[in-house]
Write a structure and sequence with these properties.
- The chain is 40% helix and 21% strand.
- The protein is α/β, with parallel strands linked by helices.
- The chain folds into 2 domains: 192 residues, Isopropylmalate Dehydrogenase; 140 residues, Isopropylmalate Dehydrogenase (3-Layer(aba) Sandwich), CATH 3.40.718.10.
- A 10-stranded mixed β-sheet has the order 2-1-3-12-11-4-5-10-8-9, with helices on both faces.
- Helix 1 packs across helix 9 and helix 1 runs parallel beside helix 11.
- The longest helix is centred in the N-terminal third of the chain and has 18 residues.
- The protein binds 1,4-dihydronicotinamide adenine dinucleotide and magnesium ion (MG).
- 1,4-dihydronicotinamide adenine dinucleotide binds next to helix 4.
Length: 353
């Protein structure tokens, strides 16, 4: 099968790290005669916006639809307001392509030290609802004359939405041999939405009795992330809770230069999109010192999603080898190597088992 991959490098360090990820894909297709892919690059970024007053062409989504997956760098430029780049590019893709799962591995790679200096293996995934909940952008304001007096922000949780994400989480657990699911909730206080969330999640849990189920209030869970991160396998969370927990999670395993993510349409009706957690980092853009590992790991998640877990594993092994040698690292993780040098080091380690 020939995989068709749309590449959107974006702004700032996005193109720098995306180039390294594409080099990794090229090398894989050299060493694995069964892996074919082609890429098409789309320069829909802030430069494009400054020329055309839009982040992508009118038929942009139509063009992307034909691909098997999207590899996204990062978007954001000081000359363009952040809400424009986010609401006109990233969010339309997530919404239109029904990428209702946000998948974030929280794994302490070999060779990296937990910033809390704990000698424990950390290896779990956060599965975040990516399409509804607290982030539906609906609400209202009440004014007294010109003055804002009250604001309401609505949360909408649907049975179908909760079922979809819970079913994905259990499916993911089964496929990856994970034995426990942790539900992040706050049903003690948010007695309409979160009690409904718990109820539907627990209906799905009841159909998956071979996987242990536990539930924690989000505040306590945040503390456990720090105190005993080794005890989690899958953490299932709503849109807002998952957003916050995943940044906390990435901080306990090496930071933004490492953290990958996937925006997944599990039904395969539209392409899924893979991107590093970090943004366009204007403060280091153009210096050639961005860590490409988060983007390369995101490309690995993409291959896993496309059915090639073996290629995903090969990439992770190479990243870990480079980390363990500690010779070729970017400044964010204590080295003085360049983006390209780290990319090349990872490529030089790639081999199939
Ligand atoms: P950021 O993630 O771009 O940078 C935060 C800090 O982490 C900076 O000090 C940066 O130098 C560092 N950093 C990030 N990635 C790194 C890497 N690969 N290697 C080494 N250091 C790295 O977040 P910030 O500064 O809040 O946002 C900058 C721009 O990026 C904004 O326009 C924002 O809207 C956008 N952004 C875009 C995202 C996306 O495209 N999905 C996600 C987050 C932010
Ligand atoms: Mg976030």
């Amino acid at each position: 099968k020939l995989y068709k991959i749309a590449v959107l490098p974006g702004d700032g360090i996005g193109p720098e790290v995306t180039k390294e990820a594409v080099k990794v894909l090229n090398k894989l297709s050299e060493i694995d005669s069964r892996f074919y892919f082609e890429t098409k690059e789309f320069n829909w970024n802030s430069e494009y916006y400054l020329q055309h007053r839009r982040m992508m062409p009118e038929n942009g989504l139509e063009q992307l639809k034909k691909f098997d997956a999207i590899l996204f760098g990062a978007i954001g430029d000081p000359r363009v307001p952040d809400p424009v780049s986010i609401w006109e590019l990233i969010l339309p893709i997530r919404k239109q392509f029904q990428q209702y799962v946000n998948l974030r591995p929280i794994k302490l790679l070999r060779g990296l030290e937990n910033p809390l200096k704990q000698e424990v293996p950390v290896d779990f995934v956060i599965i975040r609802e990516n399409s509804e909940g607290e982030y539906i952008n609906s609400g209202g304001l009440m004014f007294e004359g010109e003055k804002r007096e009250m604001a309401v922000h609505n949360t909408v949780m649907t049975r179908q939405g909760i079922r979809n994400i819970a079913e994905f989480a259990y499916e993911y657990a089964r496929e990856n041999g994970l034995s426990k699911l942790t539900n992040a909730t706050k049903s003690n206080v948010m007695s309409y939405t979160m009690t409904f969330w718990d109820q539907v999640v627990e209906e799905v849990a009841a159909q998956n009795k071979n996987i242990a189920y536990e539930k924690y209030y989000i505040d306590a869970l945040a503390a456990y992330f720090v105190q005993r991160p080794e005890s989690f396998h899958i953490v299932l969370a709503s849109n807002l809770f998952g957003d916050i927990l995943s940044d906390l999670g990435s901080a306990i395993v090496g930071g933004l230069g490492i953290a990958p993510s996937g925006n997944i349409n599990p039904k395969g009706t539209f392409p899924s999109m893979f991107e590093p957690v970090h943004g366009s980092a204007p403060n280091i853009a153009g210096k050639g010192i961005a860590n490409p590992m988060a983007q390369i790991w995101s490309a690995a998640l993409m291959l896993d999603h496309l059915g090639r877990k073996d290629l995903h594993d090969a990439i992770l092994r190479s990243i870990e080898e480079v980390l363990m040698e500690k010779k070729v690292l970017t400044p964010d993780i204590g080295g003085n190597a360049s983006t390209v040098e780290v990319g090349n080091a990872i490529i030089s380690k790639l081999k199939m088992e």
